Amino acid sequence: MPLPFYHRPEPAPPAFNTARPLTETDAIEIWIAKWLRIRRKDLIARYDCDPRRIYEIWEGVRFPLAREKALAAFSTRYPQLVGHVDPSHHKRLPLKTRSPDQLNLFG
Known about the structure:
- It contains four helices and no strands.
- It is globular.
- By secondary structure, it is mainly α.
- It has a domain at about 20-80.
- It is about 40% helix and about 0% strand.
């Protein structure tokens, strides 16, 4: 006798492929994709990695020199877009704020 729908276990979350770790070349392409406004979801699908690995690259934790190399490659590939991108590292928003009304997000 099948169990009612609400008793079925939830499917397992998708496992990310860990067979091929991200390389510095991947990090350079991830930076360029960020500046071209490729969605994070598409990058995760393209590189089949955990989203935290993408943010580690954008924050400069992994492959810290990749941003400068990517900016040089970006300026040669897309010279007309160089002035329209923000080449700085990703900035995390704090999860816990001191003010309950979160006004520090706008300051």
